[in-house]
Amino acid sequence: MSGQSKASGPRPVSAAATDPRRILSREECELIFERACRFARGGGETGIMVFSWWQGELRWGRNRVTLSSDRRDTWLNVQRRVVDGRSTGGHRVTTNQLDDVSIEAAVRAAERMSLLGIDPGWGLGDYPALPEYPPFHGAPVWSDATFNLTTEARAEVARSIIGAVEAEGLLSTGYLEVRGVAGMSKGTEVPELRQGELAFWDLPFTTWTHAQLSITVRDSTETGSGWAALASYDWNRIDPEALTERAIQKCVASRNPVALEPGRYTVILEPQAVADLVEPLIGSLLAREDPEGRRRQSPWYLGPDEHLGLHRSKLGTKVVDSRISISHDPSDPLLGIPGARVDTYGPVTWIDRGVLTNLGYRFETDVKWLEGWHGLRGPAVYRMSGGDTTIEEMIASTRRGLLVTRFSNVRTLDERSLLCTGLTRDGLWLIEDGKITKAVKNFRFTESPLFVLNSVEQLGEPVPVFRTPPHPFLIGPMPALVPALKVRDFSFTSLIDAV
Amino acid sequence: MRGFGWLSVLSSVLLAAPPVAGQTLFTWPDTAVDVSQYATVEECHAAVERVTESVRRNEFFLHRVWRDTLPYDPVEDVKPIPAEAQEAARSCGARFSDVEAQPVSEYRMLVPLYLAAGWDEKARALVKRRMDAAAREGEAALAAALDTVVHVYSGRTGGGRSSLPGFPGLSVQPPRFDLVTEVVDEYLPRVSDRMRRVKILMAQVQLARFGARLLDSARIEWAAPQILALVDSLSEAEKAQLAEELTGFTEDKDELEKRLYRDVYRAVESASKRQALLDSLRHSTAAYVREYRRQHPRAVDVPYGQPAPTLEGDVWLGCGDRCASRPVPGRVSLVVFFYHDVVRERPNDQHQCISVVSGASGIRAHCPRLVYTLRRLADRFPELDITIVARTHGFFGYLKEDMTAEKEAELLRRWLESFGVRAVISMTETDYWRLPNHDRRRIDEPTTNEVNYSFDGPAGPRPNGWSVLIDEDGLIVYDTVLQPDSRSFAYESQLIEMIEALLERNAARR
After folding, report:
1. B23: pLDDT confidence band, cut at 50, 70 and 90?
2. Nearest by CB to A201, which of B356, B360, B397?
3. B384 to chain A nearest CA, in Å?
């Protein structure tokens, strides 16, 4: 399913890039569903989940392109349930072939698995009609500029970046990716209970795009390294020239670093460093069920309430500096939202001026415990509030401290306190008396984002950062807007030789 | 050049031949297992377990019956292992079949294998060698060996569900009651350590009431007085040590008594007093309560003999215009507290029950174990008056909007009836409040029915399926959580016995 083309030599025009049908349309998804239903034998229920995706990518190293490809694939998951009155569980079979023979084979395989199951028993229960949720409106996360960035256009971008880096006598490595995804899930379960075409757990046809560009620049002595990157659903929001210039500047400025003693330093964390550091904290805000379901390792677990016989979370308590809010507004043009039908559509604030006001929760939690009947998303997409201090002003107001470009390999050591460890990368500088005085060798840090967000001195303006979805098609873009922070007493625990 | 002529000929043959001729034709490898080739006893144990599990799984798929719909059958606990597994044990164990050639130190693993193969005589011979050797080592070794042998014969070693932890290998199935008796009769008199004697006798009692059904009342009646006399003869320090050994570390000085109550008194009660209870119930509730108090002098918080509080409900279904006075005077009644927000009974059950349905699989995956038991009772005793006591939760399944008490009651009725359960439903509007600020969770207050039926206990939700049996005079006779019989307790069977006794009595009166 891939059509790679080498960068060297005459470049054939990729068929995938010129084919307007790189991803499936709504009608095609519906047709696959109908075909799967048509092949079903022995009664029972049929469901499909289908994702089709196209990805154009270009990778280079040491100023030479090493990979240019256009790939597309389909992921079709066929489910058959209670065939010939058997089996209570759904049985799924996955294929990426969409011809009749392959789909029928998948249906048959799912049926064979279903036939291994057991009788559902005396009954399935009588349920009321399914609630009808409002129609799902496609999120503003589709960009024609992303979807139409051809192989040639991507090569041009790489050429201009490599040219600029070579002109400075430096080496660059980079990765450019554009992606378009279409997906849908639909089933025939409980038709007698359905009020509309889709049950609330089905996923209506939805599409999104994703673009990312990352550049690392090194000098020939391998002592300086600069990095710049950005991700967005819209390629037009990524400025390759600006990123190149930034990576070059950082590389040049980080040459010949000196070793400093590890210890506690005042640090100025650039937005990317803040985003890297708070990622474990963001992940912990996803599920209210953790702290309230006795998961004592959750940072938001407060303790048992023996009188009421339940577990309390830290909801309503102040957890970070009162200048920090973490929120998401779907109408924010820089963020957008790819959501599910049972999710709350409106804006959500998880941390409001330092107070933990919300944790994501499931539909079941809302139905059983809370006032509504929707799920609440966690901050997969978020904006962290900031201030108006520029990084230059932060530097100017620092007597002695460090400027951090970004962190890598951030790992959680202790879930309860969110104590993490990781490395500084691609540019670390010493600040003395309000000025950057020298490049510094990298450190390993051992610090908690919770402690950091409680030690904030100054905040910058939130800007988009580099954040990529962890799955090629099941998870949509994950944009975030994060400010730079000036933080006191940040703990560096050892020196790292790596550049 | 001449010497290489054959090479050119061969090359031309290979090149001319169709490509497939040059390939190795795929054939399935012979994957049949020959367990007689296994070299160690441990491998034989594993082989027998695998075959047993495989046969059980195949039977399950063959009959395809959801176990939830069937009552617990204690006979399954004493069934022999499948013939295929016995054959595997014989085949694999052949190389160990010469008892005299086996090292006696291996008896712990060899005895279960012999018994699985049906070679009980070989097992007895090896055990005798082990016991005689232990006797020569001294009394402590003899007591330890006897303890182990009793547990092995009882099926409480190995990987069985009722096994003690720390004993790997095969469980003996069925338990060999006769062999336990034989070895205890012969060797226990030689053990003077009273604590050891207590533990061995208790193991025998546990075996005698194996599978929640009394299998050997004579053995219990023989062992129980000895246990109690031995415990009485222990010093306080010895009692504390015994309690710790039996129950793990505990500061509760009454723990030994509780444990003995559970393991011995209850067994004694099962052996001799259960029938007395039922007989007294057939006579009158007053006589039953007197007998119960005599048998359970410490059970002070049991409401048996008290008048059942009149049930209240904001919505009644299934009782027409005769809902005001329930339980109904003159009829044997079963009051079942049912919470449709907590359907989950066994969290680790593969057929998990869920209270909020969030997808199609949730509808299919409901675990109406409790409801099946209720249906069996309703089918068996049509004259039993069953009232489901429910409370509002503000949702049903996935539906929350515009929910009222009437709607919740009606949805619950339809849900129960879809499982064949027809009963009167009393739905009470639940008072609730919400935790302040950002928590907002709903906290339910106890309903009047829950308060009235809490008796001297805390007034709150009852366990889901908690049922109260009430006689025709409105007096409480029995309470239990509605569930099928289990390996450890005959929940459903005992309730059925009580209902039968009450209905017989009621019929005789009429």
Report:
1. low
2. B360
3. 22
Distance from CA of A414 to the nearest CA of B (A): 25
Q: Which chain A residues are Cβ-neighbours of B66 within 8 angstroms?
A: 88, 118-121
- Mean pLDDT is lowest, of A16-25, B213-222, B328-337, B377-386, for B213-222
Q: What is the helix (H) or strand (E) element at residue B469, kind and residue range?
A: strand B466-470
Q: Which pLDDT score is estimated for B133?
A: 94
SS3 (DSSP) at A253: helix
CB contact under 8 A, A124 and B363: yes
- The CA–CA distances, whole Å, from A271 to A283, A319, A391, A462 equal 18, 21, 10, 7
ipTM comes to 0.87
A2 pLDDT higher than 80: no
Q: How many CA atoms lie within 13 A of B30 on its CB side?
A: 2
A292-342 pLDDT, tens digit per residue, is: 987 788 999 999 998 888 999 999 999 999 999 999 998 888 887 656 677
> A315 and B368: CB-CB below 8 Å?
no
CA nearest to B357 within chain A: A364
Question: Domain B315-509 has what CATH class?
Answer: alpha beta
Average pLDDT over residues A217-239: 94
Chain A residues with CB-CB distance to B61 below 8 A: 116, 118
Closest CB to B66 among A119, A187, A313? A119
Nearest Cβ partner for A189 among B355, B360, B439? B360
At B236-267, the pLDDT tens digits run 888 777 777 766 655 555 666 666 666 666 66
> Do residue B398 and residue A369 have CB atoms under 8 angstroms apart?
no
Q: What's the pLDDT score for residue B296?
A: 81
Query: How many CB pairs below 8 A link A and B?
Result: 133
Of A263-267, A380-384, B213-217, the one with minimum mean pLDDT is B213-217
Predicted pLDDT at B155? 84
- From the list A81, A316, A364, which residue is nearest B439 (CB)? A316
All structural domains of chain A: 2-218 (3.30.2290.10), 257-499 (no CATH)
Give CA–CA dist B112/B148, Å, rounded. Answer: 12
Looking at B250-381, list the stretches that DSSP marks H as alpha helix, in order from N- to C-terminal side.
Answer: 255-260, 266-268, 274-283, 285-295, 360-364, 369-380
DSSP code, position A317: S
DSSP string, B126-152: HHHHHHHHHHHH-HHHHHHHHHHHHHH
Count helices and strands (H / E) in chain A.
11, 22
Residues 6+ apart with CB under 8 A from B245: B195, B199
Q: For residue A81, what are its two tokens?
A: 């349930």
Write out chain B residues lying below 8 Å of A116, CB-based.
61
Whether residue A283 is predicted with pLDDT greater than 90 in this model: the reply is: yes
Q: How is chain B split into domains, by residue range? A: 35-192, 315-509
